[in-house]
Amino acid sequence: MLKIFLVGVNGMERPQSINRSPERKKLAEMIANIYDDMIKKSERMADYLPLKKYPYSRDNFLSFLVLREMDLSKVQMALQEEGLAALETGEAHVIKSIEKILNNLGVYPPPPAALQCPDYTRAKEIMKTRAEAVFGTIQPPGIMVTLDSSLIHEPEIMEQLLLHGMDIARINCAHDSPPIWEKLIDEVRTAERKLTSIGKYGNRTCKIYMDLAGPKIRIGKIQNETLPLKLSVPRDAYGNAAGFIQGYISTRAENTMNDENGSDSATFILAVSAEDSFDQLKVGDELTFNDIRGRKRGMKVIDKRDSSCIKVQLDKTAYIDETTILQNEKITMSVRSLLSKPETIEVKKGDKLRLYLDENRLGHAGDEHTIPGVPVTLPKAFKNVRIGDRVFIDDGKVYGIVSHVTNQWIDLNIAAPSLKAKRIKEGNGFNLPDSLPSLNAASPTKKDLSDLSFIVKYADIVGLSFVHSPKDLSDLRDALERLAAPHLAVVAKIETKDAIHNLARIILEGLNFEGFGVMIARGDLAVEVGFENLAYAQEEILSICRAAHVPVIWATQVLDRLLKKGVPSRAEITDAIMANRAQCVMLNKGPYIIEALKVLSKLLHFDSNEDGKRTKIVKEFTAQYGIFHSLF
Predict the structure, then answer these.
(1) Domains along the chain?
(2) Contact between residue 400 and residue 424 where contact means Cβ atoms under 8 Å apart
(3) Overall average pLDDT of the 124-137 stretch
(4) Could you tell me the pTM of the whole model?
């Protein structure tokens, strides 16, 4: 074999060209055939999918899909032997990547005449442009924060969210109502104006993202019960009272209830009826009563607000109900209006649970004669349920197998949890991975279409929940056009098995929007595909979206423990760093939202301020202790 060498650095000889071996010729021929087949099929499909917007994304995406349907195992092994890249590594620039591999094997195919083929640089520019069409001009990946209705009364927290990296504010239309949504959006804009006026926010604008509720199947109303109210005083290690609690007694209060989030250290409110006003009471007076266990208790008046409200202190735990009488020599008052709550329904392995297909029927606990039952909010979604199908409740925390089906109810044999019973509540969601609920529960729903009139007025991005097919997106596009809002960016939330199987068609439909993205909604998705398969499904969605230059939102349980407990787990830190591959990352609500936002911003934008900073820090942590120095 003839070899031509050049003298290289330090006198090393380097081959300028090498005649191809039979193995390389065979590999080149195999890849050339794959390339030709891919181009022909992609061109044929492109003819059937005319697209005014983003034809380069369509063409690259079709090439990627053709490649994915081929058995490439032998070719990939041969490429590894030659030290060349795998055919599927360049999802965002498939045709150009394969052309480069062929060039390295000495083959120079003519470029396809009917397909647009972005290279690496162009593909990167396209993704940047497409991400900006959805999320705006932000430092990628952007951070989306789910707003809680309590933020209406906490402007300081809203300001902190904006200062520490919230690029997009998310409102979930499955909760609250338009007046609450409008107040939340007003708070975002008010906080922006304040921060801008003092020079802390620049010219930025936080995008508003609103999720349509979609055809989510949930547990309906459960009948209420009125239970005695426990006023709990702290105890020491020996079970003795070790402190006190404070609360309000008021003739104007609507309900008697515990109020752990109350202001001014108050943890309970007692609504009472009294014949006399509180004018005659003074600070230091004591009100005595017998709690429902017959134990004598006393509350000391520590403050007077007005003639109808006093603040009291209790130093022993007490149980009260609407028979409880508070009194002293000056006044007598009776407790009223205990806040009723839905009955407690708990199940575990071996129990039965009945699902009522009448959403107006109230759920109830069970006894020795009846099994517990709950209504479902979308009965038509259960039309295809059969014996043996799996049913998951509350993101898989409760799992049952269908044992009996009628036109009025469905019975489940509970298979999990195994040890400790789990309470099921109003609003808990269902997943029916075996029962094809999408055939009878399309998205968007009537509620979604009603909410859309609000969304187009206030939001920049709309999320379509429980997308099952491209028709769901085309229906949404028609609705947006009727509302004169075709410019609104749209995000398809991928959270069912149907959505994954239809993802290519969903994306091709999504390319018709001005701005289009995909959310990997890992909560419902994990239940649908199985927790053990979530990572694989997530990776496949990322690859498919990269091939179509579609920006992705990485969502659900990001830094979840940190949000709820204030301390992150090791695994969720790794998960958050892996989210860097998406164009946006979503945080849910939680009491430690500011802390979680700070950590996430640091993890995602690790090397944003200084080139090479990330590499430098990583090398410091992983430097090896002089291994080469020890050899010489």
Answers:
(1) 21-118 (no CATH), 143-213+442-617 (3.20.20.60), 227-339 (2.40.33), 343-439 (2.40.33.10)
(2) no
(3) 95
(4) 0.84
